[in-house]
Amino acid sequence: MASPQLTTISPSINPSKPVNHYKAYKPRPFKKEERDKVTILYGGLTWKHERLIQGALHNLNYKAEPLPNITRQDLDAGKELIDVGACCPTIFTTGSLVNLLKKKVADQGKDEVNDKFVYLTAGACGPCRFGQYHESYSMALDGLGLRDFRMFLLAQDELDQGAADGGGLEINMPLSLGMIWGILCADLLMDLEYMTRPYEVNPGQTDRVLKESIEYLYDKFRNRPSRGKKLGPLAWHLMTNYFTRALRVIRKKWEAIEVDHLRVKAKVKVTGEFWLQTHEGEGNYNIKRWLEQEDSEVVPPPVAVWLHYLLHPSIRKLEHRHSTSKHPRLQQMMLKALERVYRGTYNRFRKALGNLPYELPDQEELRRLAEPFYHFELRGGEGHMLIGKVLHTYHHKKAHMTCELSPYSCMPNTMSVGSMANVLGKYPDLLYAPIEVKGDSEVHALSRCQMILTEAKKRAKAEFESVLKKTGLTVDAIRKFEARHPELRSATYRIPHRDCAGVAANYVLHLVNDRGLASA
Ligand code: SF4
Predict the structure, then answer these.
(1) For a pocket test of ligand 1, which of 83, 88, 94, 128 has the largest count of ligand atoms closer than 8 A to its C-beta?
(2) Strand pairing partners for 41?
(3) Which of 1, 81, 159, 171 is least buried, going by the fewest C-beta atoms within 10 A?
(4) Ligand 1: distance of its center to the CA of 191 in Å?
(5) Considering the chain, what is the average pLDDT of its residues?
(6) What DSSP letter does each residue of 321-377 carry, written as one string?
(7) Residues with CB under 6 A from ligand 1
(8) Quick check: 508 and 493 in contact, CB under 8 A?
């Protein structure tokens, strides 16, 4: 029998042709002396967050410009230039950078763009694509023929990264703290915005006051006093009343907005993947504005919850003795102290705004609520928080329903939506609308949300009617009471959370229990 022939596979290498090995992207140095000529581009948050971050950057004498808000065309531009199978936020954000750079190249030429702009983006490592965003950006830069364009990463777990190559960009305490404080202030104003606009009596007034407030805060960030580079800025940011004073001025501006809290609205908590839930625009079908048009009140997701969450994996590791730290006890104490300071700062800012914005949820409680369905060590995306937030909203009656925005091709979100089947089995009356977002199926996504929203609206109406019945009050009687107490119709009048999800129902209970309004 003839022995089987072995086939030799010879690599088709042409020895005369040089081999082009893969080289990871490395930006050219950004030199200190270039600082006043180079504009830092950044993006990914709402216009409110980005404007305050711009204030913090201008304060440190950087030229800075946020990327324009995402449009549907960014999705197409992203799809053309990055890897197949990328998740929808990666495609949108890459496309947004691509479209801006294309425009700048057309106006100013390639060399000018390479020399006059750099891109600053958040970076991380981890199991999901967030750790690879910069690879997608560099792939797109290659596709555009802009390999020389400079891009820098802002690690989300390091406040003091030092100077990037060349010293033009220093990711130090004043920069990081300015950005974080800007994010916290923007979050709080975003809460005010979403809790006021659905009830405003004069259409457009909330947006006007919001714009004015953000510009006022931008000036405050731009004119922050300098306190050195290390502990000085840390101590100043933690102890100063500079920001609380500014927020009190803002509260006065909001006081003038007249609202009608008797409008019965379904309250909708928005959660989901970080970028998608934060975004306000075509990247998520403008779903927050759409929900408002559909007669509901949105509870928006603050970025501050994510920053708070980032502290917790290290705390958990230390608790479960999975850390390699030599002084686990000490490190645990320090992290817990840091967490108290963080929450304390957020609460100080809330207080300056009359405690109107929502409190940060307790991370420990989110973990506990999610535990039977999703393990906290499954990192990636928002991890266990998605389940935790839905159950937190449900148990504390924070909203009538939750709308979860899940990006197309996102593994962590797919897992959490899958686990929700188990949650819904245990809590069948929980109203939950998981919306898959891929940029091009708007009608399908919104109609899916509308199905659950219809039920949420019915619940809001039933809740209000049952409170009126229980208290024996009528809308007419409440209107007469409001006429004698005009402060009740101000946007800064705080309605305590009672046993209902809806504002109108809580308002009636408050008038009876705290303001002594009795039925005739
Ligand atoms: S969480 Fe999902 S959508 Fe967001 S970066 Fe990771 S993989 Fe992409």
Answers:
(1) 128
(2) 65, 119
(3) 1
(4) 25
(5) 91
(6) T----SSHHHHHHHHHHHHHHHHHHHHHHHHHTTT-SPPPPPHHHHHHHHTTTS-TT
(7) 87, 89-90, 128-130, 273, 381, 407, 410-413
(8) no
The span from the CA of 341 to the CA of 348, in Å, is 10
Q: From edge to edge, which strands make up the β-sheet containing 266-272?
A: 296-299, 266-272, 401-407, 432-437
Specify the pTM: 0.92
Could you tell me if 20 and 98 are in contact, meaning their C-beta atoms sit under 8 angstroms apart? Answer: no
Radius of gyration of the CA atoms of the chain, in A: 26
Please give the pLDDT value at position 2.
46
Residues 243 and 404: beta-carbon distance below 8 Å: no
Residues with Cβ < 8 Å from 320, sequence gap 6 or more? none
Going by alpha carbons, the residue nearest to atom 5 of ligand 1 is: 130
Of ligand 1's listed atoms, the one at least distance from the Cα of 133 is 5
User: Which of 55, 82, 80, 87 is CA-nearest to residue 275?
Assistant: 87
Q: Is the dihedral of CA 272, 273, 274, 275 positive or negative?
A: negative
Q: Which two tokens mark 78?
A: 């992203």
Q: Taking residues 138-162, what's their average pLDDT?
A: 82
pLDDT tens digits along 163-177: 777 888 888 999 999
What does each C-alpha distance from 256 to 70, 206, 244, 282, 486 come to in angstroms?
32, 10, 19, 31, 11
pLDDT of residue 1: 44
pLDDT per position as a tens digit, 325-351 = 677 778 888 888 889 999 999 999 999
Residue type (1 letter), 280? E
Structure tokens at 238: 């933690």
Token digits of residue 9: 């596979």
